[in-house]
Write a structure and sequence with these properties.
Strand content: 5-15%
InterPro entries: Aminotransferase_I/II_large, AspAT/PAT-like, NHTrfase_class1_PyrdxlP-BS, PyrdxlP-dep_Trfase, PyrdxlP-dep_Trfase_major, PyrdxlP-dep_Trfase_small
CATH superfamily of the largest domain: Type I PLP-dependent aspartate aminotransferase-like (Major domain)
Family: Belongs to the class-I pyridoxal-phosphate-dependent aminotransferase family.
Shape: globular
GO molecular function: pyridoxal phosphate binding; transaminase activity
Order of helices and strands: HHEHHEHEHEHEHEHEEHHHEHEEEH
Number of domains: 2
Keywords: Aminotransferase, Pyridoxal phosphate, Transferase
Cofactor: pyridoxal 5'-phosphate
Strand order of the largest sheet: 2-8-7-6-5-3-4
């Protein structure tokens, strides 16, 4: 019997469901189909021109054509230190920062650095589809803690405590949330942080959507509210969502010095330094004003209200109004089991397939983020497409 061609470790990784849906939608559009894609978590705005201009100038500087320090350009790391104090009120030093190839590499390296085989990671659900794969690659065990739409998708300390065991090492925390757009209140953040501190649990906190907030919501950083937690907290962030820079691939980790040093050692073998041109662009983003960010936020806020109103007009859909990010996460359990054009979807995955096949609208099913019964829609697309896309779904569901 021959050995398997693909290692068990890599063979067990699931494809990114969000990217798969986006790729399928784009392929259909390229073939001339009028597909409207709600799948990708990607702003539809161009990167602000002052950032692009900084990158163009950076291509002309010979030092940017060479290797640079693995943890990031000193100027960028200093900019991250200043930005963190400005936006979060959290004071850190430059040796607590590691620049990574996008937020995903930061997620992977955070788990790889502190998780050993057999360690349990508490994963509030619904969760971003990449988190469990990174946990598994590190040898960890995911323990899902589910909060449904009645809880606005926010887990409680009581739920976390019920899931905790002697093997629990890490809590993954994300607010504002992908996929739900839900935001924990300062009181909830503090209570969770105090619980983690009391139980000696590490927290990996993803702050990538920190600037995408609505209705006076705030997203305080955990170690600001619970300073004693700083020595067991890793913060993940990046420029992708805030500055419409998903393709530039610049993220970062902030954490205790020994953790950042260990993660830097890993990155030195994995990918070395991030593209210098992208790093120079990120410096321009972080040191510039937030006017362009606020303008994008105004558009997202308008679209948020639009899409929630339209989704809640569909019989069987129940969509809370999120206060962060650019996603909505309606329950579609009221539609499952009903016959639509001769087909009876029993799961949200089957419903998503039916919607794409019948009316050429792409959404990501709840199975990508936890339990079935939900769909994720990104509203990072124009108002006209939102109206047309959700209108097609409504017509499909209500046509009898």
């Amino acid at each position: 019997m021959s050995a398997p061609r693909i290692s068990r470790r890599i063979g067990a990784i699931a494809e990114s469901a969000t990217l798969a849906v986006d790729a399928k939608a784009k392929a259909l559009k390229a073939a001339g189909r009028p597909v409207i894609g709600f799948g990708a978590g990607e702003p539809d705005f161009p990167t602000p021109s002052y950032i692009v201009d900084a990158a163009i100038e950076a291509t002309k500087v010979v030092s940017n054509h060479r290797y640079t320090p693995t943890p990031g350009l000193p100027e960028l790391r200093n900019a991250i230190v200043a930005k963190t104090k400005r936006d979060s009120g959290y004071e850190i030093s430059v040796d607590q920062v590691l620049v990574t190839n996008g937020g995903k590499q930061a997620v992977y390296q955070a788990f790889a650095t502190i998780v050993d085989p057999g360690d349990e990671v508490l994963l509030p659900s619904p969760y971003w589809t990449t988190y469990p794969e990174c946990v598994k690659l590190a040898g960890g065990i995911c323990v899902e803690v589910f909060a449904d739409e009645k809880q606005n998708y926010l887990v409680t300390v009581e739920q976390l405590e019920a899931a905790r065991t002697p093997k629990t090492k890490v809590l993954l925390f994300c607010s504002p949330s992908n996929p739900t757009g839900s935001v924990y209140s300062p009181a909830q953040v503090k209570a969770i942080g105090e619980w983690a501190l009391k139980n000696h649990i590490w927290v990996i906190t993803d702050e990538i959507y920190e600037h995408l907030l609505y209705d006076a919501a705030t997203a305080p950083s955990l170690p600001v509210l619970v300073p004693e937690l700083a020595d067991q907290t890793i913060i993940l962030n990046g420029v992708a969502k805030t500055y419409a820079m998903t393709g530039w691939r610049v993220g970062w980790m902030i954490g205790p010095k020994d953790v950042i040093k260990a993660a830097t050692n890993l990155q030195s073998h994995l990918s070395s330094n991030v593209s210098n041109v992208s790093q120079r662009a990120a410096i321009a983003a972080l040191t510039g004003d937030l006017a362009a960010v606020h303008k994008m936020g105004e558009a997202f806020n308008r679209r948020r209200k639009l899409i929630v109103g339209l989704l809640n007009e569909i019989p069987g859909f129940e969509c809370p109004l999120p206060t962060g990010a650019f996603y909505v996460y309606p329950s579609v359990k009221g539609v499952l089991g009903k016959t639509i054009r001769g087909k009876t979807p029993r799961t949200s995955a089957e419903l998503a397939t039916l919607i794409l096949d019948e009316v050429e609208v792409a959404a990501v099913p709840g199975e990508a983020f936890g339990p079935s019964g939900y769909l994720r829609f990104s509203y990072a697309l124009c108002d006209e497409d939102i109206v047309e896309g959700i209108g097609r779904i409504k017509k499909l569901i209500t046509e009898g």
